[in-house]
């Protein structure tokens, strides 16, 4: 009888830990949206190195996550959804750039604030975007003497 109780307690502990990690993963990757989030969209030529849950930063500080990535069949561009902190106003002339942490680091979306006095509302689109730059393409351009493509 005592062994059955121990097994039930251990099983409940394992189940609770699994549920905690599942909720944490869903929250960290943006699968569970926050109600106080500012949800914006942006369309990029290339989102190489960006995945669900990638950081969105402003001035090097994380302000949100990438919550969705899909291919637009009409424009052949990568449409992304960004879930940002609603406490940070984003001017409507801001740009979104896919930046790299370095040669071996990962990529993230950098929001470069504009100077407009009007801010983006939830559901708005960041129109000015710059996609990721392929390191291989840069090396080929450098080795080829600047005559890329």
Topology readout:
Elements: H1 2-28, E1 37-44, E2 55-58, E3 61-72, E4 77-85, E5 95-100, E6 107-112, E7 125-126, E8 128-130, H2 135-143
Parallel strand pairs: 1-7, 2-6, 5-8
Antiparallel strand pairs: 1-4, 2-3, 3-4, 5-6
Give a written overview of the molecule:
The protein has 2 helices and 8 strands. The protein has 149 residues and is α/β, with parallel strands linked by helices. The chain has 2 domains: 1-32; 37-143, no CATH class. Strands 7-1-4-3-2-6-5-8 form an 8-stranded mixed sheet, with no helix packed on it. A hairpin with a 4-residue loop joins strand 3 and strand 4.
The count of domains is 2
Q: How far apart, in Å, are the first and last alpha carbons?
A: 74 Å
Rg calc: 21 Å
Helix fraction by DSSP (H/I, runs of at least 4): 10-25%
Please give the count of helices: 2
**What sequence of helices (H) and strands (E) makes up the elements?**
HEEEEEEEEH
Poorly predicted sequence stretches spanning 5 or more consecutive residues? none
Q: What is the average of the pLDDT values?
A: 86
Oligomer: single chain
**CA-based shape:** extended
Strand order in the largest sheet: 7-1-4-3-2-6-5-8
- Binned strand content: 25-35%
Q: What is the number of beta strands?
A: 8
Q: Structural class of the secondary elements?
A: alpha/beta
Q: Mind describing the biggest β-sheet? A: 8 strands, mixed
């Amino acid at each position: 009888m005592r062994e059955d109780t121990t097994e039930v307690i251990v099983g409940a502990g394992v189940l609770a830990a699994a549920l905690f990690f599942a909720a944490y993963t869903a929250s960290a990757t943006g699968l569970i949206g926050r109600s106080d989030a500012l949800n914006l969209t942006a369309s990029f030529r290339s989102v190489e190195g960006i995945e669900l849950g990638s950081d969105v930063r402003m001035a090097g500080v994380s302000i949100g996550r990438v919550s969705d990535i899909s291919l637009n069949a009409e424009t052949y561009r990568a449409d992304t959804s960004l879930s940002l902190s609603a406490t940070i106003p984003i001017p409507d002339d801001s740009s979104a750039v896919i930046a790299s942490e370095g040669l071996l680091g990962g990529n993230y979306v950098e929001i470069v604030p504009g100077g407009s006095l009007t801010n983006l509302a939830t559901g708005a689109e960041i129109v000015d975007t710059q996609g990721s730059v392929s390191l291989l393409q840069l090396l080929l351009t450098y080795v080829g003497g600047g005559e890329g493509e």
